[in-house]
Amino acid sequence: MVFAVRCPARRCRKYMLVEAADRGTVVTCLICRTPIKVPAEPEPEPELEVLDADPAGLPPAKPLPPA
């Protein structure tokens, strides 16, 4: 699997594609030659809490007045 890493150098900041086998290593930016530390694991996506469409305990919504 291929994923992108961003060069940390302020003068560069380019994205580069790296292989999954490069996780946990340091690769060199192809543009400016700055070392880029490749994260060991992908960042986990935050879990979203599923809410009920009609939560219990809340009063019903008031109807809108006629226009």
What report would you give on this structure?
- The structure is a single chain.
- This protein is mostly beta strands and 67 residues long.
- The protein has a domain at 2-37.
- The chain contains no helices and four strands.
- The chain has a two-stranded antiparallel sheet.
- The protein is elongated and about 65 Å long.
What's a quick, concise take on this entry?
The protein is mostly beta strands.
What percent of the residues sit in helical stretches (DSSP H or I)?
A: under 10%
Based on Cα principal axes, name the global outline.
Answer: elongated
Mean pLDDT comes to 85
Strand tally is 4
SSE run: EEEE
Determine the strand fraction and express it as a percent band. 15-25%
Biggest β-sheet strands, sense, barrel: 2 strands, antiparallel
The low-confidence parts are: none
- Gyration radius, rounded: 24 Å
* Distance separating the two termini: 57 Å
- Secondary structure class reads mainly beta
Count, helices = 0
